[in-house]
Amino acid sequence: MKNKKNILIIGAGLCGSFLALRLAQRGFSVEVMEKRADLRKTKIHSGRSINLAFSDRGGKAMKMAGIQEKVDQLLIPMYGRMIHEKNGTSKLYPYSGLKDEYISAVPRTALNCLLMDEAEKMDNVKIHFEMECTQVNLEDTKATFINQQTGESFEKSGDIIIGTDGAGSILRRSMLLQPNFLFNYSQIFLNHGYKELYIPPGKNGEFQLEKNALHIWPRGENMVIALPNLDGSFTVTLFLSYKEGEDNFAKLDSPENLKDYFRKDYPNILKLMPDLDELFFENPTSSLGTIRCSPWHYKGNTLLMGDAAHAVVPFYGQGMNASFEDVFVFDQILDRNLNSWEEVFEAYQKERKADADAIGDLSLDNFQEMKSDTAAPLFQEKRNLETALEKEFPHLYSGKYRLVTFNEEIGYSEALKKGRAQDEAMLRLLAEKKIPQHLSLKEKLDLVNQTTQQILNKKKERLI
User: Fold this and answer.
1) Could you give the CA distance from residue 253 to residue 277 in angstroms, rounded to a whole number?
2) Which residue of 222, 223, 414, 415 shows the fewest CB atoms closer than 10 Å?
3) In 3-state terms, what secondary structure has residue 164?
4) Of 116, 148, 151, nearest to 132 (Cα)?
5) Domain with 67 in it: what CATH number?
6) Per-10-residue mean pLDDT for the chain, 464 residues long?
7) Is residue 32 located within the same domain as residue 131?
């Protein structure tokens, strides 16, 4: 490995740019090939999420690279979910019982540009734009590209090739097509799609909704969410079935039908979106899918990372954070000074695959929770109790959301196992009226923990 220092990365998105920075900091020579034009010089295409949820798993990766303070300048804290009922009432449900545990909205493009800037400050990083990868020769560690400005086709090689080229990864497709390579791949789509909309700033540049919250309008099978932007606006996302149910995208085929739907289900935000018609019919309806594959590598030549290896639906706000954590884990594997890239790739996949599968499952769980459960009285009772326990006993209790989002020292798979058991225990106890109000918080904690352990023990027995 000492003589194999030249790394070719396909994709200069969030994961690829951050990976390039970190590998360069470790002394590798890195070349990045990006299909898109340079985001720092061109306007972002409309219709794709322009802000994301940044949390502790992403934060630990930024600290590793020494750039957390620069990232902090892009963040807007969101202390909880602001749930908007159909009758116009709203309530904030904190993400944690502790005030210093919150997630933040971050503009996708600004963060990507920052990561590219930091990477290009390194003398051993080069990023090339408008270079579309068409295939990867896994045996020879070569990739074919087309220069989108000239139409010229050419090859590039590296000691290794890492694909951070997203859900539509060309490297992953090349693995799938590789003869005699036992490559497993699945892509599962939801029956729902999403449409990006927008709430502009007020007349004086003010936020027209509570600034420090992630806003949710749960409506059973469908929902709207909104995240704040630095300029006082909100990115609004409508999640709606394509064709099924009483309301779906297929029925919203005219401005009149669109307005009627929003008047019925989202009347309090309709007045905040003067460009609703224009944005709805201009922006694409995008799909929501989960991608899983294995192995993530071919011999010691190529490796998949980020969404290319494990794309998830966006409902836990962990897609970006999981990709940054990929780089963090990969960096830890490099510290072991293994003998070959193949050993590095094997160790990385062994360390990371179960967690990648788990965050995919957790994200699907949270879709149900956000669009429907958050409006249910039992769920709200559960969340209030969780918040009280977290506040009073922060070292003894963490709900599932806190385990996933603020306990970055544990893996997603552990958070999934414990968090699901806790959810089952608390919901069962509350539904059966087995947590009477006269109990102290400590007694309630003991009861929840006891029931959780019983559930975990039964699941362990079934596995045996």
Assistant:
1) 11
2) 414
3) coil
4) 148
5) 3.50.50.60
6) 83 98 98 96 65 95 98 97 93 91 95 98 98 98 97 97 97 97 96 95 96 95 94 95 95 96 94 94 94 97 98 93 98 97 98 97 85 77 92 94 95 96 94 93 95 90 64
7) yes
Instruction: Give the number of C-alpha atoms closer than 13 A to the C-alpha of residue 197, restricted to the C-beta side.
Output: 24
User: How many Cβ atoms from other residues are within 10 Å of residue 253's Cβ?
Assistant: 10
For residue 193 the two structure tokens come to 């799609």
Instruction: Give the helix ranges, DSSP H, for 14-85.
Output: 14-25, 56-65, 68-72
User: Which residue range(s) make up the domain with 70?
Assistant: 6-76+105-187+288-368
Cα–Cα distance for residue pair 183/175, rounded to 1 Å:
7
Kindly report the number of other CB atoms within 10 A of residue 94's CB atom: 19
* CA quadruple 140, 142, 143, 145: dihedral sign: negative
The answer, as to whether pTM is greater than 0.85, is yes
* Strands, E assignment, 336-409: none
Q: Residue with structure tokens 């975990």?
A: 456
The tokens of 151 are what?
A: 């139409």
User: Is 53 in the same domain as 151?
Assistant: yes
What is the secondary structure of 77-92 as a DSSP string?
Answer: EE-EEEEE-TTS-EEE
Measured in whole angstroms, the distance separating CA 455 from the mean position of its chain's CA atoms is 29
Q: What are phi and psi of 241, to 5 degrees?
A: -65, 145
**Among 358, 297, 289, 366, which residue's Cα sits nearest to residue 330?**
297
The full length of the chain comes to 464
Closest CA to 231 of 197, 194, 261, 204: 204
The Cα–Cα gap between 347 and 341 comes to 10
Tokens of 157: 């090689």
